[in-house]
Amino acid sequence: MKNGSLAICGWVLMFSIPGLLMAQPLSTKSKKAISLYTEADNYRVRGQYDRAIDLLNQAIKKDSKFEEAYFRLGITLKNKEDLPGSIENFKKGLTLTTDNRKQNIYRYELGDNCLRIGDYAQALEYLNSFLISEKSNTRTDQAKIWKQNAEYGIAHQGENLAYKPEALNDTVNCFPMQYFPVLTADNQQLVFTKRNGRGHDDDEDIVISRRDGRGNWAAPFSISDKINSAEREGACTISADGRYLIFTLCGGKTYGRCDLFESRKTGDTWSTPVNLGPMVNSSAWDVQPSLSADGQELYFVSDRKGGIGGSDIWYSRKDSTNRWTRAQNAGSTINTKYDEISPFIHVNNRNLYFASNAHPGFGGLDIFVSEKVDNKWSTPRNMGAPLNNFEDQYSFFVTADGERAYYSKDDAGKKNFTKLYTTPLPEQVQVRYYSNIVTGKVRDKETGKSIVAHVELYDIGKDKRLSYVQSDSVTGDYTIVLTRGAEYALYSSSPGYLFTSLSFNYTTENHQKPVVVDIDLQKVKANATAVLNNIFFETDKYDVEEKSITELNEVIRFLKSNPKIHVEIGGHTDNVGSAAYNVQLSQKRAQAVSDYLTGHGIDLNRIVRKGYGALQPVRPNDTEENRQINRRIEFKVIN
Could you tell me what percent of the chain has a pLDDT over 70? Predict the structure, then answer.
């Protein structure tokens, strides 16, 4: 038990937090009061608080100066979450003892209680008194954290950021408890955990709600009978495309109390869940997963050995064989000696949101955010009031555009009832790097049938692959996330097909709406053509720009994978300038591309170079946008 006391033959063994044990005679001579006091604890330890409270009040009636009864009553009321009543009895007990050790136990509890109701000034007074006279130990470490929070609360008491929380409709909030909401990147599917209550109907299941034709959330339904079972399926995370789910399972075939499991969706069918295995899970408590947009990185909570505090945030990445690597602690910038829970990695893969009870905040669990800069986490920032207050906040999700959050919180005045809420995010706490999605279908150009294809996203400024997904084998659907701040190349490829190249410049533009691009792949055969959209030249020059390397390497990979084919590299221009000049410029550009390929292992005999000038426009040369499209390098299979 956290706090309490045990009466033995008229003496009291009083426990503080943790490990302080003092044997002292009780402050009352009333045998009846002692009997009631002792009997009350039999009920308190079993969670029968009302009966315990009644007996302790009877004991106090027998002797109004029975100090230990006030302490035990304060503890019992605290367990019942009646903090005002608990404070009242702790204050009374404090006035009845002159023992400094016992007084400090009261100050410690009162500091905690006052912090929990947002009475920061009173909390600070009790905690300062406690710390002045208490020797350094675990309790003083905790008291220092509470003091930090009381001071933070006082300093930010007038803070009122422009949060506007609104409960989701009753169609969604239809269970006694619903929490840990996550959305697909297109904001069309809402996945969360539902729970019917306590006792015999305490099962947790994962449910899903979809937007209807008017944009409203429809009635939630079980995500899958293969996923939900008689065991408890808790907090989950879903990939950007809604086809890869990782969730918490407590009970069943697990390594510890709770493990993380995965399931994949093909068409409309989820696969049988599989344990993520010992590289991720442990013999401890492994819960509350959060998956990066491309499904390659996983954050979660564990209280396993080797951590920094009680509950820490850990992470694992997939290796080149698509297997999860051994989980690592997220580090001391994120984790503290106490508890960090409920991580959420934004789809931009830069912003990590989580809840902590030890970083500077308003008390209890607050929501914080840290940004990844040069692969290091920044000092966590409190998300501010009134989102955060003296109560516990967790279960926080931010949409791809960074403008809105979803979360759960207690239903006002109702114990064991929670609802899902949404709020716009104030400008001060919005992400710097918001994201957008590109979505569509990958199909065979001739038959129109869906193709299982690789879809890869590269930052061409860094020649770095950022994301890798596969299109759905049944529907051909793919979804990939693009984050502001870079130029991107998107490649779609499948064995036996010519790859397709797309280009997106997100360095400065404000892309808010999803981009829909259906990709039609051509089979590798004579005259199959692809435009190399990510090869760049300066105006009137033929030297290949550095950011073209990603595309050139993609061509090299294709040619090495198809060693028997021969190709033509064709240069094209718009109609600005003389015809002779344009032919010459386009020929030199085709030659520059060819030179790179042959310089990296491609046989010169496999490549034909040709400059077409402005002779083969794909659009009329009547606007700058059209002229830009006509200025291109094409890649054509010739046999």
Answer: 94
- Interval 177-234: pLDDT, tens: 999 999 998 899 999 999 986 654 578 999 999 999 898 999 999 999 999 998 999 9
Angle at 340 between CA 138 and CA 390, to 5 degrees: 80
Query: b/e for 290-325, b at 16 or more Cβ within 10 A?
Result: bbbbbbbbbbbbbbbeebbbebbbbbbebeeeeebe
Rounded CA-CA distance 530/522 in Å is: 9
* Beta bridge mates, 381: 369
What is the DSSP code string of 306-374? T-SSSSEEEEEEB-TTS-BPPPEE--TTT--SS-EEEEEE-TTSSEEEEEESSSSSSSS-EEEEEEEET
H/E element, 8: strand 4-8
437-483 tens-digit pLDDT? 899 999 999 999 999 999 999 999 999 998 888 999 999 999 999 88
From residue 542, how far is each of 417, 505, 576, 592 by CA, in Å? Answer: 67, 21, 16, 7
- How far apart are the C-alpha atoms of 62 and 510, rounded to whole Å? 73
Going by the DSSP 8-state scheme, the letter that residue 384 receives in this structure is: -
Residue type at position 389: N
pLDDT in tens, 581-604: 999 999 999 999 999 999 999 999
In single-letter form, the type of residue at position 333 comes to: T
**Helical (H) or strand (E) element with 269:** strand 269-270
451-465 core/surface letters (b: 16 or more CB in 10 A; e: else)? bebbbbbbbbeebee
Calculate the average pLDDT of the chain: 92
Nearest Cα neighbor of 249 from 286, 223, 301, 278 is 286
Structure tokens at 198: 């306590």
Amino acid in position 191: V
**Separation between Cα atoms, residue 78 and residue 60, nearest integer Å:** 18
Is the preceding omega at residue 386 within 30 degrees of 0, hence cis? yes
- Report the SS3 class of residue 607: strand
Give me the pLDDT at residue 2, please.
36
In the 8-state DSSP scheme, what is residue 434? Answer: -
Cα distances (angstroms) measured from residue 235 to each of 186, 206, 343, 580: 20, 8, 11, 65
| Per-residue confidence band for 413, with pLDDT thresholds at 50, 70 and 90 | low
Per-residue confidence (pLDDT) for residue 296, from 0 to 100: 87
Q: Which helix (H) or strand (E) holds 425?
A: none
Give the DSSP H/E element, type plus range, for residue 79: helix 67-79
Give the integer Cα–Cα distance in Å for 625 and 384.
45
CA atoms within 13 A on the CB side of 236: 33
Question: CA-CA distance, 66 to 597, in Å (whole number)?
Answer: 90
| Ramachandran angles phi, psi of 412, nearest 5° | -50, 125
Q: Which domains does the chain have, with CATH numbers?
A: 4-155 (1.25.40.10), 172-429 (2.120.10.30), 434-523 (2.60.40.1120), 524-639 (3.30.1330.60)
